[in-house]
Amino acid sequence: MNLLREAETALCPANEPNAEVPNGAAGHYLLGLIYRYTGRRTCAVDHFMQALAIDPLLWAAYEELCILGAAEEASECFNDAAAFRVQQQQLSESSSQNLTIGTECQSLPSSMALGSGDTSPRHSKQLHANNTRETLSHPHGTVMVAGHPPIGGPSNISQYYTPPAVTQLSGVAPPPLCRNAQLYLNAIGGDGYTKSNVNAVIQAPRRKFVDEGKLRKVSGRLFSDSGTRRSTRLSGEAAANTNSNASQLGGNGANHFSAKSLGGLSSSSSKTNSAVLRSVTLRRGQSWANENFDEGRRSQIFYDSCADNTVTTSSMSALADGKCLEQDKMGCGISAHDSRLASGIREFLGLLRTLGEGYRLSCLYRSQEALEVYLRLSQHQFNTGWVLSQVGKAHFELVDYFEADRFFDLARRVSPYTLEGMDIYSTVLYHLEEEMKLSYLAQELISVDRLSPQAWCAMGNCYSLQKDHETAVKNFQRAVHVDSRFAYAHTLCGHEYVALEDFENGIKCYQSALQVDERHYNAWYGLGVVYLRQEKFEFAEHHFRKAFHINPCSSVLMCYLGMALHSLKRDEEALEIMEKAISADKKNPLPMYQKANILSSLERFDEALKELEQLKEYAPRESSVYALMGKIYKRLNVHEKAMFYFGIALDLKPPAADVATIKSAMEKLYLPDELEDTL
Amino acid sequence: MATESDGEEDTAGKLTGSQHLEVDDDLREMAKKAAWSVSSCKPGNGVLALRDDNLDTYWQSDGAQPHLVNIQFQKKVKLQLLVLYVDFKLDESYTPSKISIRAGDGFHNLKEIKTVEFKKPVGWVHIPLSGTDPRETFIHTFMLQLAVLSNHLNGRDTHVRQIKIYGPRPNPVPHQPFHFISKEFITYSTLK
Q1: What residues in A contact B177, CB-CB < 8 Å?
Q2: Which of A15, A304, A7 lies closest to A174, judged by CA?
Q3: Chain B environment of A656 (Cβ under 8 Å)
Q4: Euclidean distance between CA atoms A36 and A26, whole angstroms
Q5: pLDDT for the residue numbered A46
Q6: Does B186 touch chain A (CB under 8 A)?
Q7: B83: which strand partners?
Q8: Would an 8 Å CB–CB cutoff place A607 in contact with chain B?
Q9: ipTM over 0.90
Q10: Which residue out of A624, A645, A648 would a mutagenesis test of the B interface target, given it has the greatest number of B Cβ atoms within 10 Å?
Q11: InterPro entries, per this entry (chain B) (predicted)?
Q12: pLDDT computed for residue A671 by the predictor
């Protein structure tokens, strides 16, 4: 809703600077978001840290810290002390939670239905409401009405309710994992968000969660957090999702949940933990229509629920399993709860640790290390949409487009309705010049959610690939309009303006991108390119260096930095960087070419020729390589070779501009010969 | 074959126009940000009709020959191709038959670079702006002027339905002397 200031004052009344932030961790999280969006980074970091301290399972806070570049090691955040704290929290509430879980779950659907399109005016109010509600919902008892929301009444409030119930597991980590509600939903869905006739079954797994005891408070917080996040972030998405899925929902109108379940997180280990992992976090309000389960669309249910099953695609089976397990567990008695709780928490935190570390490294653009961390995950955790997307993204940052393509493709297969990370995938396809795949991706994304920035980014990339820059600009502007806090949309828009040689608008776009996210190295890069074109070399170098500082492993960035240095005549440094770029990525021909360029301008022709010979082997049909060789031979006055290479270059059909340059160079070759003849 | 030396009578040197606009991929329309003006026009058929991407609207001149269309760019640009849409079947005596293309820095120093003749053209007429010299694939200029010297059937005024001007695309990699054409290079040449 963008009423950030009101939200801020509500959460943190100006005249009471030391008042405790309402609703503890979630409140801090919200405040952190507010500060982030208004540009006050240190305050934001502070609040996120506090949020994490109070509730170590608040993955959202950790994620934001990563994005801001200020996260500590995941093992610090998700360590044993945290486990202990979580345990304490859960234990204190476990007693009253049994029944409430059930009710909460139901209320979730109802509230979600209500809440989905809802615009919560005052986050704070809701937060408070949430707190009180949590206690109220307890007495609700085991009235499981899957298809019939008990707390359908007060929209705002109930919406806060359900989430708690639903977020069975400190869906913290899971949320990111399951940004695609669908996927996880299934897993969780297995837990019972199916049609009404499965009431009892649904009940069972829920209770299991209660046993684990992690839910309430955490979920409550998460919910409020997700609720507010929804409003402060991509509220449009939620509405869109629910709307789009509404049509899919057959009879289960009420059961619209906008939630992100962490199906993927279901740990493979003990049964006790499985429940823990089934948490649904309402993140971006992606609705999980029950139908979807029923339609079996979510084929990827990485919900290794209770019965140690491997990924099961049918929610029913998961449900059934959950039920058995549940009953099993109930049989064990309460005394076992605590130990299970403890071990469950530990397992869960272990998982969070790995994911957190991976995410953190990925945000710090230490992509190689991030990849290693992700590889440590177990097979089915790895094969979840979120993780695969993150791996794809890491490869993208390393400029390894083929691998990125592979992983994103897998991610899409695994969870076809994921939107997060798909903008990066569209860029990967753009670079690989895969027109078909890119247009297909764009169409699919639009059909999943017309109001998501990623879908419009993909469309824009499509047009950009066809060199229709004006339409691309329109599409990117739509993406910006849909979500102005989506930095990448701004950057892509800037790229298109620059392609149209409209530098002013391009710079504006890049700057808006940077306002949203200072660590968005693509925007720094874009600004560098603009200044390079405008021959403001100092500026160009400064911007490239900033981009390089943020993402030190991209060979293309290093190359551009080298080019800027060369333009500033700092050739030694330029050559150094080129060497680095070459060693960073063997498949990238650009730094070799640029190195040859620099060397030839320094008149170190032999070395230049050596590089070009190597390049020739690598890309034998690249006319610019031959053209440059021809140029060098011309400088060396070896006319036959020059003519030879110019000839090859022309044969490879370069664009007209090059043809003109090469031909004129060839013309000039004749003159000295003629002079010799006449002499 | 009819006498080729005399370019007036035979159709060998004359352009007739084609149904489709065929432009190379490595060219782009250059004159979106240019200033367009005409020597004269009939009210309702002004210069806008030349740029509105609508083949039904046309510019009609309203004065003495030669009729001029002036295109002034904000900076010196490389131009490669001029394309006109004219239609003899609809416009008959209003269809231009001889056109002179001039370029320069401004009105004061325009120099003719090309003259072309049309023979009952219907459709898009592509006029490359290069000279015979292969080095001159482009002309590098601030201003272009299109002068309609005469019309078919000795008509006084002229109709032109659309004009487009094309030039080379800028190199996506700045300060690079040559363009990359192979996929291996293009993939890595920029970041997005």
Answers
A1: 597, 624, 627-628, 631, 661
A2: A304
A3: 24, 26-27, 80, 137-138, 168
A4: 15
A5: 82
A6: yes
A7: B126, B164
A8: no
A9: no
A10: A624
A11: APC10/Doc1, APC_su10/DOC_dom, Galactose-bd-like_sf
A12: 62
Chain centroid to CA A205: 30
Q: Does B64 touch chain A (CB under 8 A)?
A: no
Compare A324 and B145 and report the one with higher pLDDT.
B145
Tell which of B53, B81, B180 to mutate to test the A interface (max A CBs under 10 Å): B180
pLDDT at B31 over 50: yes
Strand, helix or coil at B49?
helix
Contact of A631 with chain B, judged by CB distance below 8 Å, is answered with yes
Verify whether the Cβ–Cβ distance A433 to B186 is below 8 Å. Answer: yes
How many Å lie between the alpha carbon of B80 and the closest alpha carbon of chain A? 9
Q: How far is CA A282 from CA A32, A266, A296, in A?
A: 18, 17, 21
Alpha-carbon gap, residue B96 to B116, rounded angstroms: 10
Of A492, A567, A587, the CB nearest to B192: A492
A202 CA: distance to closest CA in chain B (Å): 46
For residue A97, CA distances in Å to A36, A100, A138, A457, A466 come to: 34, 5, 6, 43, 57
pLDDT of residue A94: 58
Q: What order do you get walking across the sheet with B96-104 strand by strand?
A: B35-38, B67-79, B139-151, B96-104, B111-117
- State whether residue B2 sits within 8 Å of chain A by CB: no
**How high is the mean pLDDT of chain B?**
85
> Which residue of chain B comes nearest to A530, CA vs CA?
B174
Domains and CATH numbers, chain B: 27-188 (2.60.120.260)
Give the residue ranges of DSSP H helices in A398-468: 401-414, 422-431, 435-448, 453-465
Task: Please count the residues of chain A.
Answer: 679
**Shortest Cα distance, chain A CAs vs residue B79, angstroms:** 11
Cα→Cα distances B20→B55, B81, B122, B126, Å? 12, 15, 11, 10
Q: How far apart are CA B129 and CA B181, in angstroms?
A: 24
Q: What is the pLDDT of residue A166?
A: 34
Helices (H), A483-554: 487-499, 503-516, 521-533, 537-550
What's the confidence (pLDDT) of residue A266?
A: 34
pLDDT of A13 reads 62
Tell me which residues of chain A have a pLDDT lower than 50. 14-17, 95-334, 678-679
What phi, psi does A254 have (nearest 5°)? -70, -30
Judged by average pLDDT, the poorest of A600-614, B15-29, B156-170, B174-188 is B15-29
In this complex, is the C-beta atom of B74 within 8 Å of any C-beta atom belonging to chain A? no
Long-range contacts of B7-13 (CB under 8 A, 24+ apart): B7/B117, B8/B117, B11/B119, B13/B117
- Cβ atoms A1, A10 nearer than 8 A: no
pLDDT tens digits, B59-89:
999 999 899 999 999 889 989 889 999 999 9
Tokens at residue B150, please? 């005469």
Q: Are B66 and B160 in contact (CB under 8 A)?
A: no
| CB contact at 8 A, A115 and A107 | no
CA dist., res. A634 & res. A629, Å (int): 8
Q: What mean pLDDT do residues B24-37 have?
A: 86
Residue A43 neighbours by CB distance under 10 Å: 16
Cβ–Cβ < 8 Å for A242, A258: yes
Residue A282 in contact with residue A160, Cβ under 8 Å?
A: no
pLDDT of residue B157: 93
In this complex, is the C-beta atom of A484 within 8 Å of any C-beta atom belonging to chain B? no
Beta carbons of A142 and A103 less than 8 angstroms apart: yes
DSSP label of B33:
G
